[in-house]
Amino acid sequence: MTYVTKQGLIDRFGERELIELTDRTNIPVSTIDDVVVERAIGDASAFADGYLKKVLNLPLPATPPVLEKAVADIARYYLHGKAADKDSPVSRAFSEAHSLLRDVSRGLVELTVDGQSPSAPGGSVQAAAPARIFSRDSLRHL
User: Fold this and answer.
1) Torsion sign (Cα): 91, 62, 47, 51
2) Structural domain boundaries of the chain?
3) Three-state SS for 124?
4) What's this model's pTM, rounded to 2 decimal places?
5) What is the C-alpha to C-alpha distance for residues 30 and 12, in angstroms, rounded to an integer?
């Protein structure tokens, strides 16, 4: 499941930036390379899924806005590639998104959509044990 769209990246980062990051031909009329954008979105979504599947049933019924932003920041980082230096805003946004996903997988942060949390995988924990052999009453006469 992808959590952000090409239009979502354009809305967040601007068309000019996506053209600069994806256009490999540099012809006079530059355009956004959809293949490059979709690969970055797919890779970023798969990265997020690796953390989310530990605590949520996938696919999610809807994408929480905070997850959309995190995946957009990760996709942008992937598009920048080696050009994203360690102290750049792009790298900092990637680090924040990565931290958010780690916190979600640890159960420290809960994702919500319209005030409701997506369901967690699995069911409730149940335990069964045999009846007690020794109790105060059974030991009282000894």
Assistant:
1) positive
2) 6-139
3) coil
4) 0.79
5) 20
